Each structure stands twice: as structure tokens, then as C-alpha cells.
Amino acid sequence: MTEYLPRLIDDKLDIWLATAGAVLVAGPKWSGKTMTCEQRAKSAFCFTRKPGESDPLELARLDSSIVFTGEKPRLIDEWQLMPEVWDMVRADVDTSHGEKGIYLLSGSSLPPRKTKNAREIIKHSGAGRIAILKMPTMTLFETGDSSGDVSLCSLFDGVDVSGQMRKITLAEIIHFIVRGGWPGNLDVPDVSLLPKDYIDRINTIELDKILDDARINRTKFKRVLHSLARNESTVCSISTLAKDASINGKSLDEETVVGYLDILADLFLVENQEAFSPLFRSRARLKMGVKRHFCDPSLPAAIIGATEKNLSKDLQFLGFLFESLAVHDLRVYAESLGGNLYHYQDYDNDETDAVLEFDDGRYALIEIKLGYEYAVDSAAKNLLKIADKLERKPSFLAVVSGTAPMPLKRPDGVYVLPLTSLKP
Length: 424
Known about the structure:
With 424 residues, the protein is α/β, with parallel strands linked by helices. Helices cover 35% and strands 16% of the residues. It folds into 2 domains: 10-134, 3-Layer(aba) Sandwich (Rossmann fold); 140-190 and 273-423, no CATH class. The chain has helices at 10-17, 33-38, 56-62, 65-68, 84-94, 140-143, 152-156, 170-179, 193-210, 218-230, 238-244, 254-266, 298-304, 315-336, 376-389; strands at residues 22-26, 43-46, 74-77, 103-107, 130-134, 150-151, 270-273, 291-294, 340-345, 351-357, 363-369, 396-401, 408-409, 415-418, 422-423. Helix 5 links the parallel strand 3 and strand 4. Helix 8 packs across helix 13 and helix 9 crosses helix 13 (298-304). The radius of gyration is 22 Å and the shape is globular. 42% of the residues are buried.
């Protein structure tokens, strides 16, 4: 059995198992949901058919009790293939006299759209009975590629930065991007193969699971995927995506694009980075456009055909993919601390790549730069300019760099933080 690498979701999952009757762990396929749940489950039922075995879904349709019979906590894997399971779990929790941590559910999509009433089968939200946790792909801290010298939480508490000198090459950054955070892709000869296979499966097997072919044009769907990949880490409107995904010079219908984005959201493959909205006054009018990111930076790289050998030839696209990598990790770190990750953009055309905000109002402004020597000065000046506009001042300003040799604090107070030094 593959060795389990601890995940940032672990502590939160344990807390919810001690708090709720059931916990759903949801996220993209191959992100490690099942293995994480297996560390805690004492029995399991999986809806995925294994070679030489009967179809578990057919068996469950004949006798649903086999899904629930076993020592608790019981894992129900890929539950969404039989949506009725949701209400059955909720009902069992209701009759369990307050027992906690009875069920673990895991799923890599929302219930199928193929059956017209699949979503309507679920009669109850599960609120108060079934807690929901999102499982992202692995961060550099979880894969062991970040030293963890710098704690973002400590920066909010005013602790200064420190860390060892560590030379990170451009080739290593490219490797992290192309490999992604897939647990099964950490020690393989060619890290580009799994993300490419993932994209192929999205266009075939995964669509077949959740859709009726009559509801989707696969050529158009692939064009939307390519458009999203080309526009990774940018503020891109639906109309721009529709035009960019045009076929023979004809733009796609915007409703079609929205529908395909919904499908990708159902598969947990695309996430929106919302715009930062200060609670207090600022001297700038803010734009509210969203940045759309794939759930893992390896996916846009795979869609475009970027590899470890050719990605360095397009530094502009490499910069966007590095931002995707950094935003992915910062988002996971923020959510593990109870915060959220936004971006900032105003009508003065000032913007910053990331804003990490907590519910108590504390926040940090962060710029993301692939390089170091020639990039940090302008990024720091930009952060200081934006901070001056905001009435509610940030807890700290930071430039997250791909190739900075070590964490440091500049004379102007702006931190320079290698991505490979960060942890929550």
C-alpha cells in the first residue's frame, strides 16, 4: 500500500468527525480523498466497479442495506453515483441518538445530470447532519517541496521571517507546475502523463458518467477547456471566453459557455478567485471580475501541451502558470486557517494577485512573481501604492517569488517569500 502523506485537511476532518454524524469529502478525482478517508474508516463500500466483480451500483439498487452494513465509521466512496445515498445517510444519522462520525462520504463530482431527476432525488440539504469538506490537490508543503520555514499565520501575528538559503531553479518550478499536486504523480518517470490522461478522461469517461451526450457538443467543450487554459490566472469574462473558443470564426453562445463552466464546477475542476471587497472605505473604485483557475496548475499546462522541456520557451505563459501554482497553494493555506483568498483590481488599473483575508477583518496583500532580481522592486512598490489607498490597512505586504533564495523583509517593510518556504 502506498505510504500516506499527511494532508492539511486531516485535522479539520478529525474535528468534523467528532462533531457531525457524517462528513462528505469532495474534490477532484485523484486528489487523495479515498486514501484520506481510509485512514479513518473501519469499513467501506465503493461504487466503482473492480475487475472481476459485480457492478456495486446494481447490487446497491437491489439491496441498499449493503451500502450501510459495516463497522463505523463506514466509508461510502463515489456516493454521487447513487444520489439516494445522501438522504439515507441523513436519515440514519437522525436515528443514531447523537452518535458522531458514523459515515464518511467521498465524491469527485456532484450527482449525475444524466438522469433528469438525479439532483431532485436529494430531498434534504443535510445541514446539521452531514458536514462538507473540500479536498484540493496537494500543496508544495504537503508534497515536501516547501521547507515550511515561513508560517502565514505567524506573519499575521507579527512574527518576523527567517529561513535557510535555498537555491530554487527555474527547472524545478516548471517541474512543480507540470507535475501538479496529484498524490499518484509524485514519483513517476514522466510527470506530464497523468495530467494529460486526466484531461482525456474529462472529455470522455467523466462526461459519460454525468451527462447525456445530447446535452453537450464535445468539440465546443474542448474549445472552452482550451480557452480557460489560455486565460489561466487572468480576469476573463464569459463573452471573452465565448469569443476565444470560437469555431470557424463564430463565437460560442454565452449560455453554452456558462453551462460548460457549470459542468467543470460539478467535477471540482475550476474555481473562482473572487475580487476583494473591503468592508471600509477606499480611495479607489473596485472591479468585481473573477479570476478562473483550474483546480491544479498541471491541467492548463496539459491542455496547452506544455512540458518540462518546452515550457521555458514561453515565459509569459510560464508566469501565468506559476501564478496558478502559487494561488493554488495560498488558497489551500488560507482555507486551512479559516480564511479566503481573493484578488484586487480597481479602475485606476492597479491590481494585486492575491488578498488573504480572515473573518475577523485582518488581511494581507500579496504579489506573485516568477522571478526575483528584476521583479521584486516593482511588485513591492505596487503593493505599497495599493495599501496607501485602503482605509483599512493590511497586516502585511508580501511578494511570493518562485526563485527568491530565502525569505527576507525589505527596508520598506515588504516581505519577499519563496513559494517553497511557505506553510499555513
